[in-house]
């Protein structure tokens, strides 16, 4: 009788625990479904709100370089070009630095230095974007105009094939400056991802390579990078998604001119900067507002595709 009475409360506790687990699972499932519904509602709302622009201009809206509110002619070509160019150029600048930081923190730095340096890099992600924009406008742009851009124009501007990218007046602002600021902003995301995946390489793999006489760089090139390359690419695309949607920092330094410049030193705009500048002057129900919301839909699709791809790559594991 005593054992039976002792078993009863234990069975009750198990049933209670099972009920709590079910409730917790349902709550988590509802939260996940809510996020999906919210995401779907957002993209549907942007598409419906931008539909008048797509109806008025058709597919030409994506490629047109017009943006004339007086004649009500709108196109997304210039802003799409600026968005892609600045984001890709920022990734080109940030990836080598991020790789060097991750390589240093995982393979070269002494243990006492790894945490402080890693924390300092990650703190860059906590700086508000408007601070980056103000720093870029008041510090970086004048420095580029006085020192960096004149030197590049004089020394690289006459090169064949790529020289046209570095010609023009050294105003300091422009696509190149915006990409430089973006590179600094996405650097902590890419560096942190690379550091984390480099640390996941089983030590026995690296120790085996060292035992065969490989150098530190040979271990990195022949063991670490092949083992982690999918996750590294995913981290890079995560930074790319961050760069595509940046608004205030880019608005400060890109020049905000609605034209496509062949020079990286020329002014331009991005989808996010154009929406930020023009949204406050748009009337409800106007074609201009519909065009801005259509731009938002295009940016949402671009960012969602990039981030979804990065999440897929980060979940993938490469078998060595």
Write a short abstract of this structure.
By secondary structure, the protein is mainly alpha-helical. The protein has eleven helices and two strands; from the N terminus they run H-H-E-E-H-H-H-H-H-H-H-H-H.
Tell me what you see in this structure.
The protein has helices at 2-57, 60-63, 77-108, 111-123, 129-156, 175-199, 203-211, 216-244, 248-253, 271-278, 287-315, and strands at residues 67-68, 73-74. A hairpin with a 4-residue loop joins strand 1 (67-68) and strand 2. The chain is built from 11 helices and 2 strands. A two-stranded antiparallel sheet has the order 1-2. By secondary structure, it is mainly α.
Keyword list:
single chain, 320 residues, mainly alpha, two-stranded antiparallel ribbon, globular
What does the secondary structure layout of this molecule look like, with pairings?
Layout: H1 2-57, H2 60-63, E1 67-68, E2 73-74, H3 77-108, H4 111-123, H5 129-156, H6 175-199, H7 203-211, H8 216-244, H9 248-253, H10 271-278, H11 287-315
Antiparallel strand pairs: 1-2
Indicate the percent of residues in helices: over 70%
Averaged pLDDT: 86
Strand content: under 5%
Spell the H/E element sequence.
HHEEHHHHHHHHH
Whole-number radius of gyration? 25 Å
Q: Strand sequence of the main sheet, in spatial order?
A: 1-2
Determine the structural class based on helices, strands and strand pairing: mainly alpha
**Count the helices. How many?**
11
Terminal Cα span: 59 Å
Shape: globular
Count of strand segments: 2
């Amino acid at each position: 009788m005593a054992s039976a009475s002792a078993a009863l409360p234990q069975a009750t506790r198990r049933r209670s625990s099972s009920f709590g687990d079910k409730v917790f699972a349902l709550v988590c499932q509802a939260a996940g479904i809510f996020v999906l519904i919210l995401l779907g509602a957002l993209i549907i709302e942007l598409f419906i709100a931008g539909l008048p622009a797509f109806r008025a201009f058709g597919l030409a809206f994506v490629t047109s370089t017009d943006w004339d509110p007086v004649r009500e002619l709108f196109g997304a070509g210039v802003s799409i070009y600026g968005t892609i160019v600045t984001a890709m150029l920022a990734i080109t600048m940030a990836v080598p630095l991020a790789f060097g930081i991750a390589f240093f923190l995982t393979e070269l730095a002494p243990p006492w230095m790894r945490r402080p340096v890693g924390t300092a890099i990650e703190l860059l992600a906590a700086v508000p974007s408007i601070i980056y924009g103000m720093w870029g406008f008041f510090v970086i742009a004048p420095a580029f105009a006085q020192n960096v851009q004149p030197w590049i124009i004089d020394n690289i501007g006459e090169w064949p094939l790529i020289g046209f990218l570095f010609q023009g007046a050294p105003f300091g602002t422009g696509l190149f400056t915006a990409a430089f600021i973006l590179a600094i902003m996405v650097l902590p995301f890419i560096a942190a991802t690379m550091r984390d995946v480099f640390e996941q390489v089983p030590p026995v793999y690296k120790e085996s390579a060292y035992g065969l006489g490989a150098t530190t760089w040979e271990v990195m090139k022949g063991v670490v990078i092949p083992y982690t390359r999918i996750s590294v690419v995913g981290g890079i695309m995560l930074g790319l998604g961050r760069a595509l949607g940046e608004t205030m920092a880019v608005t400060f330094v890109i020049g905000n001119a609605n034209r496509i410049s062949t020079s990286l030193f020329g002014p331009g705009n991005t989808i996010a900067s154009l929406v930020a500048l023009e949204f406050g002057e748009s009337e409800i129900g106007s074609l201009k507002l519909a065009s801005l919301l259509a731009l938002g839909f295009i940016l949402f699709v671009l960012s969602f595709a990039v981030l979804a791809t990065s999440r897929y790559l980060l979940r993938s594991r490469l078998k060595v």
